[in-house]
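HOLO CASE FILE
Compound: flavin-adenine dinucleotide
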Amino acid sequence: MQTNFLVIGSGISGLNFALHAAKKGKVILVTKKKLIDSNTNYAQGGIAAVLDKTDDAEKHINDTIEAGDFHNDKKAVRFMVENSAEAIYRLIDLGVAFEKDKNKLKLAKEGGHNKRRIAYVGDYTGQEIERILIKRVKEHLNIKIIENCFALKLITHRKTCYGSQVIHRNQVDNIFADQTILATGGIGQIYSNTTNPSIATGDGIAMAVEAGCKTQDMEFIQFHPTALDKQITPRFLISETVRGEGAKLLNSKGQRFMTKRHKLKDLAPRSIVAKEIYKELEDGPVYLDISHKDRKFLKKRFPKIYAKLRSYKIDMAKDHIPVTPAAHYLCGGVKTDLNGRTKIKNLFAFGEVTRTGVHGANRLASNSLLEALVFSNQIIKKLKPSKKLKIITIDRPTLSLKTSKESLLAKRLRKEIQKLMWKYAGIVRDRKLIKKEGIPAIKQILQELSHITSTNQIIAETTNLAQTALLILTSAKKRRRTLGCHFVE
Ligand SMILES: Cc1cc2nc3c(=O)[nH]c(=O)nc-3n(C[C@H](O)[C@H](O)[C@H](O)COP(=O)(O)OP(=O)(O)OC[C@H]3O[C@@H](n4cnc5c(N)ncnc54)[C@H](O)[C@@H]3O)c2cc1C
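Model generated. Tokens follow.
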């Protein structure tokens, strides 16, 4: 197969990019499960943007940089914030019905924001964006969608990308493209405790690194402070907008603990709240309490959360909600410039897979959908289908059965990686332990995986998880002091 643009991933960044690219050429969009299977589909809170008269770009920039512990790339932050309103209006034009009050967008507040600036749709903003973008992509005659198609390896030659090798219908195929776009999302599945769905296995990062790209800021993993404390995979998120609407955090003695720990109290930046909850959990469960709010309000404002909690016999209008931190977002990733370019010619990346520099050492809430959207809006303005497509030969690996001995080994190793990463690269880190125990343990797993000569999605994902885990541990080992969401013991 051959095309002008090969887009890998069907979250907000892949779908949005595909819509722009389809105006310039033929697009093939591949995604490893169904189209809706993405982190985007899980986003609850909304998208931050400068939309209110009392707000301005400088305030949003300052909040972003303060949350990022001043590690951000200021040029990238300004670029994102100054294009934020345009990005929201684009979504509205495509059909996303953000909540309004008499023609004015309703805006929510989340941790680290000094203004109400989050456009939202109930507590299922991501699902609504995903639904509309999928609808538009399906309508487009220039876009060919291939579901259940797993990108295995980028096809590269002399620092140029020519497409990707994929597994589809139990076969290995090559898709050649003028431009290849990584929109493969995050890495949450590296941890035993995560809000991310099963697709988030760091494939894009591992493939890009293998092709010669650089990564940066890999140690900055954001742990969401308030996942529901019930053993489910992925962990169900209690959006920060619940605290934005007045929910308070209580420790096992029923006391508010954030009041003494940060000036923004329960709405302090996520890294701070996650660490404080983590400490409190040593003495017993931690709860969110929004029971002072009216049931009618809660049902209307948080329909999904309300219903989910009811399924666990928790009534948010009366009961306290047990919460715990969970791995949520990777602030670093594949290094790109403001145009989404990587070090490899004709290979672009955007969305959670990238390190654009906007998040610094800790992402400000609701800036990730914005980053994915703004960057995938801008890049395409400068992109043309390249005329020189060179077809090169590439070895096709042998496929292994999902029930084979190798696949079972990969499944077992995946669980080990998840446990190791929670222990060594979790909320609070010990550099000596990372060096002495964490890194050697992951290297041992990579060694075991290297003996597997055949491949399939399970084996490839596990290898990608292990390679990405090593990148995280290596970066965490190098950073001596606490910064943003990297807490050093
Ligand atoms: C529970 C939850 C709540 C969140 N809430 C918010 C919020 O309120 N506001 C906000 O700004 N952000 C939020 N986020 C973060 C935000 O949703 C993500 O950062 C963003 O959606 C990432 O978009 P993306 O397009 O980069 O990746 P994704 O949406 O994750 O899409 C990645 C796509 O790539 C595909 N893929 C991956 N690997 C391969 C492969 N090898 N081959 C083929 N396809 C592949 C996946 O199947 C998927 O379709 C939340 C995240 C979670 C998990």
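CASE NOTES: The domain at 225-327 is CATH 3.90.700.10 (Flavocytochrome C3; Chain A, domain 1). The chain has three domains: 1-220+331-396, 225-327, 405-488.
CLOSED: yes
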